[in-house]
Specification:
38% of the residues lie in helices and 15% in strands. It is an alpha/beta fold. The longest helix has 25 residues, at 292-316. The protein has a seven-stranded mixed beta sheet with strand order 2-8-7-6-5-3-4, with helices on both faces. It has a three-stranded antiparallel beta sheet with strand order 9-12-11, with helices on one face. Strands 1-10 form a two-stranded parallel sheet. The protein folds into two domains: 12-35 and 294-382, Aspartate Aminotransferase, domain 1 (Alpha-Beta Complex), CATH 3.90.1150; 43-290, Aspartate Aminotransferase, domain 2. It has 13 helices and twelve strands. Helix 6 links the parallel strand 3 (117-121) and strand 4.
């Protein structure tokens, strides 16, 4: 598994000059660019980490495939929140060092190479493309992966990336769209790679646009659900992370679930290259997955912040609505160019993420992961 060179516009150093301008603005800089959580880690997670600090999985080597308790917690989480019975569909799981690592190594761990093609959305999280490049495989970008005609007959397609809810756009796929992707991929022997890291963050109904119940943790459709995968995990892998639901980005706590034969092969390689989650972190992951009350609290925080941010961006002149899902407001640049808008926003101390990072230079992404105070201050400046 040798790494190949990669090329990407995704480089946060490119916004350094805008940050200098923002810091010099009255009131200083408000950073709405990187989606990094700022709220406290749940007490349940911190306690579990402390208790496990001197467990056998702490002073001894941890289990690559996950402790029995973590594996049980993942299965419980899928059952309770995603309406998925992992055992019934013959799915296995493996914890990963955050979901970014899982995304970046996926093509390599699946042994893709120069004659293989990996499909991804044209507007998407940049690590999909970087991971494909690292494996030496070819990237095929399509406007909408749910339009299976855009990739089904392309020679060499070995995998299809799906991201619902989408970072950066917030788009959510229906179960019918997901089922169509799975069926088309199976026809050609390709693997469906479904990044569902924002699955519990659905803000409005994709069909009628109505905003959901503020106390609800209704999940977006999972590619491993019976009506999507037809009762079998064959050729399907799902990625999920606790970074956003439980404010555990620094714990690097995520997992892959799905096709048991693919998981077994990936786990064997992960063990040999040392991609193993520390034992105490595995205990913390299990606690976070079971503590859905804390997830509801965080869900309410993000819902409120997104609402404030959407209203403020409208007042500033952007045309936008509450996203269907995820944690970002995706807007078309008023100038038609993300960098020009970045310059104007920096003058009032606000930093967004340039759409060029995600394949759409005419857009910007605003993150709701800033504190309540920062979001309120940003709203005040945008409304002036």
């Amino acid at each position: 598994m040798g790494f190949h060179e990669f090329s990407s516009p995704y480089d946060w150093s490119r916004i350094a000059a805008y940050k200098r301008t923002a810091k010099a603005a009255f009131g200083g800089m408000i950073d709405l660019s990187v989606g990094s959580p700022v709220d406290p880690v749940p007490d349940s997670v911190r306690k579990a980490l402390a208790v496990a600090a001197n467990d056998p999985n702490a002073y001894g080597y941890p289990v690559t495939a996950g402790t029995a308790d973590l594996r049980a917690a993942i299965a419980e989480w899928f059952s309770v929140t995603r309406d998925v019975d992992l055992r019934a569909i013959h799915a296995d799981v493996v914890p990963t060092v955050g979901s970014k690592e899982g995304v970046a190594l996926m093509a390599s761990l699946l042994h893709f190479g120069e004659d293989d093609v990996v499909v991804q959305p044209k507007v998407s999280y940049p690590t999909y493309e970087i991971g494909t490049q690292l494996a030496g495989a070819k990237v095929l970008k399509v406007d909408d992966v749910a339009d299976v005609a855009s990739w089904r007959n392309v020679p060499g397609v070995k995998a299809v990336w799906v991201n619902s809810p989408c970072n950066p756009t917030g788009e959510v796929y229906s179960a019918e769209q997901m089922a169509g992707i799975v069926a088309a991929a199976r026809e050609i022997g390709a693997v469906v790679l479904s990044d569902e890291c924002y699955a519990l963050m659905r803000w409005r109904d994709a069909v009628n646009g109505a905003e959901g119940d503020a106390d609800s943790l209704a999940s977006t459709p999972c590619v491993l659900r019976d009506d999507v995968c037809l009762g079998s995990a064959e050729g399907v892998l799902v990625l999920y992370s606790l970074s956003k639901q439980s404010n555990m980005a620094g714990y690097r706590a995520a997992f892959i679930a799905g096709d048991e034969s693919l998981i077994a092969s990936m786990s064997a390689y992960r063990k040999q290259i040392g991609q193993i989650i520390p034992g105490p972190v595995q205990a913390a992951m299990a606690a976070g997955l079971r503590d859905l009350e804390s997830v509801k609290v965080q869900h309410a925080r993000y819902r409120e912040r997104l609402g404030v941010l959407v209203g403020a961006l409208r007042a500033y002149g952007y045309c936008t609505d509450m996203p269907e899902g995820a944690l970002y407001v995706w807007v078309r640049a008023k100038s038609g160019d993300c960098w020009t808008d970045m310059e104007q926003l920096a003058k009032i101390g606000i930093i967004a993420s340039p759409g060029e990072f995600y394949g759409a230079p005419e857009y910007l992404r605003f993150s709701a992961t800033a504190s309540d105070g920062a979001i309120a201050s940003a709203a005040e400046r945008l409304a002036r």
